[in-house]
């Protein structure tokens, strides 16, 4: 299938061209040091390729939430040094003041980071004046920040209409993986949806039931589904006002031929903390003063068998309160099964979500999945079946 957007392969000769590249440099920092450089590393392929092809590379990114005001604590000048270390090349920092003149001094192959796009109030409003301000600095536009593509901002959406626009390598890889997982997947497809609450993932669940063959529900949200089936979940996290919605989702799944898997054994405790006394019980044996904090081992084994018969897996949300032992057990076990099946070549596995990525790292298998998205909000919106404005704009 040909891609609905252009990539770096379609840019032609870019020697001496000024290329504005939207990246995600919004890294966590503490005491002046980057505490997780995943996002910086994700930009290297695109930025290095453009520089090697002789472009003048101008990186556009936001940093924090300065709310349209310059703020030295949220200056991308703070990220320039760590970014140089990750890229292994010199990086210039360019303030908005006098940006046009400074850009004019750059040579082919130079890399510069422009100041925080959100220092302009119009960035988040996709104000044409801000789009013009950015566009004046470049000849071409590359969007490489899938994680910001769910926002229609000047630097993520507006620019794609103003300059010749291309998807960067990281964007391209992300879109290809997502297409393989949900757009045009090999069946049977399983979805694992976990995490704390049904209410935050209603649209995800509704979208998935019509597309996947197996919907595996875990985490706190499974409690609402169990309650909808008449199970007394005791003191568990449970959105009792959403049991009707849970029922409707299960009905829709039934009609679509999607099998919904709920845990039938669970790990319970009376206290929400690491290593409290626990019991592993059938879901019908949860006491009034107990909380379900993980899926039980029998259910995990059965779910592993489901995955063995699937060709594609898409995963968002941990199966239990994985931050506390021993409630990480189900997530870790199922993640390791998925990783092993991926290694065998029998499963395409795509996962995303802030806590999901943390859980897969905790299980030591993030690099064994086919693709792990660190995009957070954009990944969830994609799982809801929504069109992402930053991606749609690349398609023209
Ligand atoms: P993601 O960030 O990957 O989208 P969520 O934010 O939806 O995932 O959910 C993660 C949270 O869900 C974790 O903090 C985890 O502790 C919590 N959680 C999972 N299972 C349970 C449970 N049974 N009871 C309470 N919290 C749970
Ligand atoms: Mg989360």
UniProtKB/TrEMBL annotation:
It catalyses: (2R)-3-phosphoglycerate + ATP = (2R)-3-phospho-glyceroyl phosphate + ADP. Keywords: ATP-binding, Cytoplasm, Glycolysis, Kinase, Nucleotide-binding, Transferase. Gene3D superfamilies: Phosphoglycerate kinase, N-terminal domain (3.40.50.1260). It is found in: Cytoplasm. Its EC number is 2.7.2.3. It comes from the Bacteria. Substrate binds at residues 24-26, 39, 62-65, 118, 151. Pfam families: PGK. ATP binds at residues 201, 323, 353-356. The keyword Kinase applies. Pathway: Carbohydrate degradation; glycolysis; pyruvate from D-glyceraldehyde 3-phosphate: step 2/5. InterPro entries: Phosphoglycerate_kinase (IPR001576), Phosphoglycerate_kinase_CS (IPR015911), Phosphoglycerate_kinase_N (IPR015824), Phosphoglycerate_kinase_sf (IPR036043). GO terms for molecular function: phosphoglycerate kinase activity. Transmembrane segments: none annotated. Monomer. Belongs to the phosphoglycerate kinase family. This is Phosphoglycerate kinase. It comes from Sphingomonas aurea. The gene is pgk.
